């Protein structure tokens, strides 16, 4: 297992770069979708989707390195969605995640909100017993989404689905964990930390030898609003990675 020399979290830099990060990661997702149609429409771009995606990742790392002095290493992003990119000293780029909420986004704000909601519904239905009492999240969910009955959540998840709005519920879960000590809220963040750590582990075998043997260890730059709750994530993420 690789040694992670340090995790860089600079709140001021993250706040200033957040909009740029979101723009670049959204563009990366679009390029990946475009790649799936590349054989059907060769006129989409004169640049191959793979090359375009790599240039976006390099652009992202360049933006972030200005603030955090990280020129090679791993960028782990967790906001509304999640993504993890490794940039080696020789310029090679490798990724894990970034496939959107239907295929991935593990450890992201949306993923945690979805998990919290599902824990409540599965517990009430008797399908899967939640590991802890669901009362806090249930009441917070009713208030946040302005539900009058359980079935009203379907409007938010289907007819009027807004990924960003659903992801915002994570801030309520974070408050439940940090301010109220709710065990189920803490559990959601614990699981998110595990999933984010798995992203780093997935790239371990692709780390350049020069980077792996660095005296400082492998640098990991954590970016995104989810890392504002670092204290709730760090133990599981560090243990996993």
TrEMBL record:
Its EC number is 2.7.1.59. It comes from the Eukaryota. Keywords: Kinase, Transferase. One of its GO terms (molecular function) is N-acetylglucosamine kinase activity. The keyword ATP-binding does not apply. Residues 71-234 form the ATPase BadF/BadG/BcrA/BcrD type domain. Belongs to the eukaryotic-type N-acetylglucosamine kinase family. This is N-acetyl-D-glucosamine kinase. It comes from Paramuricea clavata. The lineage of its organism: Eukaryota, Metazoa, Cnidaria, Anthozoa, Octocorallia.
């Amino acid at each position: 297992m690789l040694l992670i020399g340090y995790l860089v979290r600079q709140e001021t830099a993250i706040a200033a770069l957040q909009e740029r990060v979101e723009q670049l990661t959204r563009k990366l997702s679009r390029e990946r979708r475009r790649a799936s149609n590349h054989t059907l429409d060769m006129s989409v771009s004169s640049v191959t989707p793979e090359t375009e995606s790599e240039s976006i990742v390099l652009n992202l790392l360049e933006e972030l390195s200005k603030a955090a002095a990280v020129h090679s290493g791993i960028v782990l992003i967790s906001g509304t969605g999640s993504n993890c990119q490794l940039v080696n000293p020789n310029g090679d780029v490798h990724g894990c995640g970034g496939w959107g909420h239907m295929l991935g986004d593990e450890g992201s704000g949306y993923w945690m909100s979805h998990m919290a909601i599902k824990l409540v519904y599965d517990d009430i239905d008797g399908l899967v017993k939640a590991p802890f009492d669901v009362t806090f999240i249930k009441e917070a969910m009713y208030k946040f989404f302005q539900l009058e009955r359980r079935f009203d959540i379907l409007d938010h998840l289907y007819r009027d689905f807004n990924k960003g709005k659903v992801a915002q519920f994570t801030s309520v879960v974070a408050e439940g964990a940090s301010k109220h000590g709710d065990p189920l809220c803490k559990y959601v963040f614990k699981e998110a930390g595990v999933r984010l750590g798995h992203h780093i582990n997935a790239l371990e075998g692709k780390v350049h030898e020069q980077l792996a043997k660095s005296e400082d260890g492998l640098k990991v730059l954590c970016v995104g609003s989810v890392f504002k709750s670092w204290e709730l994530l760090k133990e599981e993420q560090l243990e996993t990675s």
